[in-house]
Amino acid sequence: MPQKTVYFGRFISTPQPNELLIRTGAALVNRKDGRGTIEKMDWTVGSPQDAVHKYGIDTPVVTAKDNGFFFPGFIGECFHSYWDLRNRKSLTLWTRKMANGCLQTDTHIHASQYPNVGIFGKSTLLDWLTTYTFPLESSLGNPKSPMYRNATEPPDPLARAKTVYNRVISRTLANGTTTASYYATIHLDATNLLADIAFARGQRAYIGRVCMDRPETCPEYYRDESTEQTIAHTKASIEHCRSLDVSGELLAPIITPRFAPSCLPETLSQLGALAKAEDLRVQTHISENLSEISLVKQLFPDQTTYTDVYDHHELLTPRTILAHAVHLSQDEMRLIKQRKTKISHCPASNSALGSGFCPVRVMLDEGLEVGLGTDVSGGYSTSILDAVRNACMVSRHVGYVNGGDSRYNLGVAEGLWLATVGGAKVVGMQGRLGGFEEGMLWDVQEIVLDEVDPNGERGETEVDIFGWETWEDRVEKWVWNGDDRNVRRVWVGGRLVHERQ
Ligand SMILES: O=c1[nH]c(=O)c2nc[nH]c2[nH]1
Ligand SMILES: [Zn+2]
């Protein structure tokens, strides 16, 4: 394979929350170090022939379709509140410069729950966990899982894990997710298998072996036996990830206490100590549901808030991703900001499980760093584009319950920014992912938007482009009606990891 490739076409990105940047040109990507880094962005290239002329016949040129664009990397420095509450105009202001590509980051997804997408009935968090989630997760490692109660053949949990993990990675890649922070299950073998599959398929992934060992809250069929076992299996899973990718660039472990109620206090302390000793990423849930918050109060009477529980156990670090954060107090937000801890906003899940309206605008105003998560299978879809839509929708409900105030509304560019630049910050890859800057990694999806033909027949996808729309309007239409049919190709670190047939 040649070391360098030129990508020619339209590049769209959101370098700032309310800026949609659209430009045409070329990216020269170098895979010399196996990383697929942008060596040069060249806005003087006007055609594929031009690119050949400039970069030589031996450098392949990959061209985006005329009716499409590269939508990768969103860039960002440290996020500060950009929304001036008095200046409503800034929400709708889209700067029209030129544009380029983008990465999509799913900052919170349970790979093991993928078979349950769409299955949640009328449940809310705590009964959803016991009714749907623990039985499914346990079936990826425990032949005595309640899911095998009526099995006619001897169960093969690892074979099931292989099917599930291959499928969820296919789905997320097909939806343009180039980086994902995964929860697996408590099972070491199955978690290592998820790492193997993600690495082989080339998705950038953080792999979390789920820690849960508190007998009052975890069923006997699905929990670690003791703190010692939790720590030993966590360490073994970390070692496995490191054995696959020493650099930790493409694949890395992430310490994963399921949520405070599922872990013994001693376990939380030891996980915090491990994260600190080895400077590891951490992911967990926080303040998703009111009954959950009451449970935390009951189980941790010595800590004043849910956030304080994590802080007390040294789990509130700059490398920690907290999913949900729907019901935080202002004091909790301030502590999270002080610790530089990150938030994964999971709007589809919050709506599906009736958890509440997450006030993203307030968090952004407080200066918190926020990305988007699908939270499959609390969330019903593996698509981060769908998470963008849901984030926009939920923000409007937040505005409604706050007196109909539109300052809470997230715009499309802002939603895309959260899904890319925001996500890059949340996973600690800011400046490396999420944009089309020289030196950044080529984690990019190519989007196509078919035009309706003159007879008014439908195009191949749900996004009907008539031809007269501006590119800004086309991007809006893509966000509201797009899906995996609009994702033609996906690259991670310059490697083609998905191509739509
Ligand atoms: O959305 C969620 N999904 C889960 O699996 C979970 N476990 C604890 N809290 C949770 N929230
Ligand atoms: Zn979750």
From TrEMBL:
Keywords tagged on the record: Hydrolase, Metal-binding, Zinc
Similarity-based family: Belongs to the metallo-dependent hydrolases superfamily. ATZ/TRZ family.
Required co-factors: Zn(2+)
Gene Ontology biological-process entries: guanine catabolic process
Organism from which the protein derives: Capronia epimyces CBS 606.96
SUPFAM superfamilies recorded: Metallo-dependent hydrolases (SSF51556)
EC number: 3.5.4.3
Name used for this protein in its record: Probable guanine deaminase
Function (record text): Catalyzes the hydrolytic deamination of guanine, producing xanthine and ammonia.
Matches recorded under Gene3D superfamilies: Metal-dependent hydrolases, Urease, subunit C, domain 1
First-level EC class: hydrolase
Pathway it works in: Purine metabolism; guanine degradation; xanthine from guanine: step 1/1
Gene Ontology molecular function, alphabetical: guanine deaminase activity; zinc ion binding
Protein origin, superkingdom: Eukaryota
Sequence ranges assigned to domain Amidohydrolase-related in this UniProt record: 106-497
A Gene Ontology cellular-component term: cytosol
Catalytic activity as recorded in UniProt: guanine + H2O + H(+) = xanthine + NH4(+)
